Structure formats: C-alpha cells, structure tokens
Amino acid sequence: MAGEGDGHAEPSEDDTLKYQLLGPSLTKAGQDAVDQQKVSEIIYNASKGSKFFNHEQERDRNQTIKIERLGKEKARLEKLDLSHDLRRADEYLAELELTRDLTQFVVHVDCDAFFAAVEELDRPELKTVPMAVGKGVLTTCNYLARKFGVRSGMASFVAKKLCPQLVLIPSNYDKYTAKATEIRAILAQYDPLFESASCDEAYLNITAYCNENQMDPEEAVQRLRAEVLENTNISVSAGIAPNAKIAKICSNKNKPNGQFRVSNERTAVMEFMRDLPVRKVNGIGRVFERELESIGIKTCGDIYPYRAFLTKLFGEKAFQFLGQCYLGLGRTKIEPVGTHERKSVSTETTFHEIGDNEELRSKLRWAAEEMEKDLARTQFKSRTLCLKVKLHTFEVLTRQTAPPRAVSQAKDIYTYALPMLVKLEKEIPGMKLRLLGLRCSNLVSTKKTGLNFFGFTAQPKPSTLTETPERNNEHEIDAEEAFESAARQEVQDEMNELEQLSQEAASPEIAESNSAEDVPVVEPPAQWECPICGRPQAADDRVFNVHVDFCLSRQTIREIAQESPQEESSSSMSTSRKRKTPNAATSTDVDPRQKRLFFR
DNA sequence: GCGGATCAC
DNA sequence: TATGGTGATCCGC
Predict the structure, then answer these.
(1) How confident is the model over A44-73, as pLDDT tens digits?
(2) Candidates A201, A490, A494, A504; catalytic one
(3) CB-based contacts of A471: which residues, under 8 Å, 6+ apart?
(4) For A249-265, how does the pLDDT look when each residue is reduced to its tens digit (9 = 90+)?
(5) Domain annotation for chain A: domains and CATH numbers
(6) Is there a catalytic annotation at residue A369?
C-alpha cells in the first residue's frame, strides 16, 4: 500500500510514484515474502531519469491533482444534506439484493505461471532457477523469480537488476495455445459451456456437474485440478463461489496449485467482501484504488458508509459497480466466448524513436498491411479508423476518422490514415514517435453465411487463440444448446448483414469496388410472413431484416416482462448497462444477447 | 462522436 | 542503452 512504512497516513509524492512503478501485478501471488520496500527502491533507481520515469511522474502528478479535487468535493458534500442520495443508494442496494442468486456453483480456473510452466515442461532444468518469459517486457515468470520481486509486466532490464541470474526465455505462443487446448478439453467435461477468459483462465458453472454426480463443489474442483495436472502436467488454481466475480478473487487466494471456496450463503459472502481490499476486485486498478483510498475506502466493506457520496464523486456507473462489490454480487451466467461480439481490431508496434516523416510513413504502411491481414482473418470491414501514436515522451495520442465507405484493404487504410498522421506532424513540430498503431471499429462482418434466416445452419466459428473447443464436435452437448448456439450465431450474422446493407445503401460504389468474395450475396426469401407478428411482408431484403429485428426486440421485451425480474442478476463493471429505471423488466434497454430468448 | 484514461491479461 | 500488444469501457466534452 502506498505510504506504508513512513508512519504517516498521508502518502508522500515519492511513495505514490514508487507504488506506481511497482507495476500492476503487485497484488498477484508469490509476493508475500518479498521486501517490497527494497524492491521498490531498486526499481525506482533503475528507472530514475528515463523518459519512461518522467512520464510516470507526470501521470502521478495528474492523479494527485485529481485526488485533491476529489477531497475538496467530498468535504463540500459532507456539509450538504445527502439524505436524498442516501435513500436512493439504499433503494438501489435493496434492489440489487433482490437479484442475489445463491443457487449456482461458479468456478474460476487459473493456470499457475502458465507460460513459464509450459517452458519448464520442455526444459525441466528451468524449474530450479529463476526464469521469466518475454523480451523487453516480461509476460510471466516462475515462482523462484517472484521471490526476487520480479513480476509480469516488468521491463527485463529492471528484472535483471533485481535478479541478475534471471533466465529469460523468448515467448512461444503456439506452444502455449496448444497446451491451453489440452487443458480446455478437460474443463469441457465439467462444463461443456465453460468460458475462456483468456489463454490461461476460464470460468465454469459446475452446478449441473455436481448435481449429476452427487458431488460437493470442492470435491469436484479437486478432481478437476488433479485431472488437469495428471494429463497435462500443468498445475492450476481455482476459486469456487456463487458467482464469477468472487470466484475470480478466490482463485488467487491459494495460488499456486490450490483452491479456495466462498460458500453459497449470504453471510459467508458478506463477510468475505467486508475485509477484502477493493484492489482485489477485477475492474479496480491502481488509479481507482488510490482514489478510493483517499476518501477512506480500503476494503469492500468500507463502501457502505460512503454509499451516499459515490454517485456524485465517481459517477453512476462506478456507484453501481461498487454497490455490487459491497454486496458480493456477480454474474452466474457462464457462456462460451464465441457468443460475444467483437467491437474492434487493432495493431500497434513499438520501435526506437523515429522523427523522419518518410520512415513514419513506412511504419504506417506496414501497420496498414497488418491491419488488412487481421481484418481478413476476423472477416470484417471497418467504418471507423483510429490512428494511435506514442511520442518519444511516452505521451499517447489518438486521432479518429470515418472513411466514406467501409475499408478492409491496406491501400485504403493507408489512404485514410495518412492525413491524420500528417495533421499530427503539423500540430507537433519535430514530432518523434516510439509507437504507431491502427485500430478499426464500427465493424461490418464479411462472413459468408447466406441469408437463410430460419434455416439455422450454423457456421463454424473462426478459431481464435482463446476460443473454446468447437461445440459442434462435442457430441455429448445438449441438442438444445447446439440449437441455441446456432441461433445466436444467426442473429449475430443477421445484424452484421443489416449493417452491411445499410452501409452499401449509403455508398453504392462499394458493391462495384469489391469482388464477389468480399461482399456476400443477399438472397432473401421471395415471400414470407413475419414469424413473430404474423403479418405478411414485402419481399425486400432490407425491410425484411429491419422488420424481424424490430419484432425480435419487442418479443424479447415481452418475454422478459413475463419472466421473473431476476433474469440478469448482475454484471461486472465492463458489462453493466444503464439502469435508470430500477426495474429491468420494464426497461426497453435490452441487451442484444437476450434476443436468444426468442428461440427457446 | 471524439479523445483521453483506465483496466485486464 | 532500455518499459508490450490487444480489446474493452467510461467520462467529459
């Protein structure tokens, strides 16, 4: 914690900066026995004077200013009558409490020092020495290295200062993904619909497994972990809890090679959260931690006495998120990542400082070519293009533009990105960059699915690194789930097609400028009736899509209204939605994913 | 809608 | 000597 050890509650400027320099993974496992004071000193001295350091210092100063404002605002609020805010907060918490679901067993599985562990399988001699994977920046390190204060995300030259004998291994992602696939095959036996959170993490809902096998969740997870270890030689840690948020926190509790459970009782959950540092919660990082600490919130239990202040100090979204933290609520619905919708594709690279305009153009051309490949791989075109640069001072700038038509080819991307770069060169005389990148958003799918809306012919999903095993190959999967999966995919494709159409309607020239394989041919049924409202519709594909989409939304709202109002118990900060009206059932702000209810 | 900032892994 | 890449979300304007 910042300021610790100086005998003062108020952290000094250096303390916050040093804490910042320690990196984001301070709270991770394997650091308990480390003298943080000493480590922090070494990192500080290794970094001092560098451009990176100066930038961090600048950021730290800005945060301090923000926190000072926060303190003044809090002092101002304390003099006001907040009874209205207090009542509102209590009403919201009561509302949240009604959504609590304690019927599910959710598990978060986390591989221990995954990349390092995989490397150790190939070269067992690495097990006995401090070792890290990565080049300029470490992606993972083994537990021997952590004893020296070495952490993921740390610059390797700093790590070498902490631990001169540290062995560095270049990363080999293909190897890790292959291993991850082996592990996922085992996870699927416990929950075929498990969710890959990343290469080395997954969420499972083992409620059905436990019921079918008459097994205690802890016993089931013991078995799961043993099975993974036996078959793949990778040790994993796990958290068991009534929801994903707590399960995630629990998986870190007994790392490595351990597990921890918070039982499905309200008192157990509340007690667990009460003393839990807010930083342990997914979504609360170093900055928010500092802000919360400055007003007196260190643990999730501390949130409650401040409930009346939170909206005015941090905004509505943060208030709702913190409310869920205090109550220990989280999602219980675990679903494969394939069901999520991609929002952007991006590429960026760091290089040594470049000021020469010609050289920068060459970097931009390269980025555009990378982007073309990525868009082809993910099967998208893009209607919004964003240029990202990092100056030699580490300051990051972005500039965004909307090309007249969706782009997918390198030459088009370059054409529309170049003016942004030129403008930046003019704005910043003598501009020197250390990074250049491109991001595409407002995506339009180019997947060829045909338009058999009611045929439900599922398309095989592109297999990305974190994708779950192909559901269609798992013959033991419930037929209804497979059906639902296909339906979800269809709805997704449908919406993408709709976007594609609207985009083409706006710019007719695109249909000519692209070859047939880029743009799927749209063949709607000649005549049809809307399956929802039953009304006959004109055989115009655009109207068809718009109408069905509209009807689907309406249908969904009706269905949700009929179901219990607890449908969506809660969600994490990143997925939480507006909730101005207290009752979600009457809200028209429907999560698109809920449209699948129609297919039940 | 845009740009900056934060967060996770 | 030297501090990453990808994707997402939220806020203020």
Answers:
(1) 999 999 999 999 999 999 999 999 999 999
(2) A201
(3) A192, A336, A338, A477, A481, A482, A485
(4) 999 999 999 999 999 99
(5) 106-129+165-264 (3.30.70.270), 339-445 (3.30.1490.100), 471-599 (no CATH)
(6) no
